[in-house]
Amino acid sequence: MPRVFNFSAGPATLPEEVLAQAAEEMLDWHGSGQSVMEMSHRGKEFISIAAEAEADLRTLLDIPDGYHVLFLQGGATLQFELIPMNLMRGKRSVDYVHTGEWAKKAIAAARGLAPSVNLAASAEDRGFTYVPPQSTWRLSDDPAYVHYTANETIGGVEYHWIPEAGDVPLVSDMSSNILSKPLDVSKFGLIYAGAQKNIGPAGLTIVIIRPDLVGLGVPTPPLMMDYATHVKSESMHNTPPTYAIYIAGLVFKRLLATGGLAGAEERNIAKAAVLYDFLDASDFYANPVDVADRSRMNVPFTLPDPALDAEFLAGAKERGMVQLKGHRSVGGMRASIYNAMPIEGVRALVSYMAEFAASKG
Ligand code: PMP
């Protein structure tokens, strides 16, 4: 069976070269006589794998000296809670920008943990189809941080700019667009991302945190919930997701070898243009998101009649294109076209979409 074009929102397609290398190294990693999965996380082999992955991530994102990089577990979902638990610093309120399903979950988690949650802005008025411009944001008085969701994986809405928060730490969920373009990490207090889109396998969560925000949480935090624990133990307080870290490391190396994040951005712009240009020219398919805020990673689209969805999906599958069904909360279709989706996959999708529309015309 040839490999399919996998448009899944996550876990998602990975670079074929990375999978091939992992296969080659599966039984004997670099002459160690063992698979990475079998290694002690405290042995020198795995320590070198983790250190190299971290160093490569630092190079890719040009992470400023002093910022901590943590390789954790629990998904972005655990971060929804750790952020308010760790970052209050005695302040009264936290600010969130509401752009859709993932922002909503982050906000719900904060409501249980922060004394007051202020919605600085919300795109609910137009069904979460845009990013509220910064000029409309109303920050609370002296919030502990401002949180935004850099890319709404379900709604297909992405920030193509970095908010200005002044002295207030800026916190961002970058689960579904990290490593898709260059990023000025120095503008952030904390960045977090689950790995299973642009980084590697599920099970690994990356947190990048400015040092002055570590260790100021609740007076006696549970150790696993305290960023200070993970900083102190260099992400080895307990057994880390070793194989996921290894694969992430291979993905970082591949990105470095293919033009870094500027190269990734160029490819992602080109790929997204193929799909959006087609959608804009079509009167059969539609995408609801404001043009300036469209995601380069997740492209939702609808057919004129939901009754056609099942036939569309079946035809796509026959042609080797899978996981195009939209999220249950919005319906329709969604094509996730992360870093590892080749432009050939997007071209194949567009050509099938044209064929399908013509067959109904
Ligand atoms: N935030 C965003 C933007 C996501 O896309 C996801 C997962 N799809 C999550 C958070 C939750 O991540 P996890 O399932 O790894 O906890």
UniProtKB/TrEMBL annotation:
Lineage: superkingdom: Bacteria
CDD domains: PSAT_like
Sequence positions that bind pyridoxal 5'-phosphate: 76-77, 102, 153, 173, 196, 238-239
Sequence intervals crossing the membrane: none
Cofactor comment text: Binds 1 pyridoxal phosphate per subunit.
Coiled coil (residue ranges): none
Modified residues (N6-(pyridoxal phosphate)lysine): 197
Reactions performed catalytically: O-phospho-L-serine + 2-oxoglutarate = 3-phosphooxypyruvate + L-glutamate; 4-(phosphooxy)-L-threonine + 2-oxoglutarate = (R)-3-hydroxy-2-oxo-4-phosphooxybutanoate + L-glutamate
Pathway participation: Cofactor biosynthesis; pyridoxine 5'-phosphate biosynthesis; pyridoxine 5'-phosphate from D-erythrose 4-phosphate: step 3/5; Amino-acid biosynthesis; L-serine biosynthesis; L-serine from 3-phospho-D-glycerate: step 2/3
Compartments in which it is found: Cytoplasm
Cofactor(s) the protein needs: pyridoxal 5'-phosphate
Alphabetically ordered keywords of this record: Amino-acid biosynthesis, Aminotransferase, Cytoplasm, Pyridoxal phosphate, Pyridoxine biosynthesis, Serine biosynthesis, Transferase
Family matches, as SUPFAM superfamilies: PLP-dependent transferases
Enzymatic class: transferase
Binding-site residues for L-glutamate, renumbered to this chain: 42
EC number(s) reported in the record: 2.6.1.52
Domain Aminotransferase class V: 4-349
Subunit structure: Homodimer.
UniProt function note: Catalyzes the reversible conversion of 3-phosphohydroxypyruvate to phosphoserine and of 3-hydroxy-2-oxo-4-phosphonooxybutanoate to phosphohydroxythreonine.
Family membership: Belongs to the class-V pyridoxal-phosphate-dependent aminotransferase family. SerC subfamily.
The name this protein goes by in its record: Phosphoserine aminotransferase
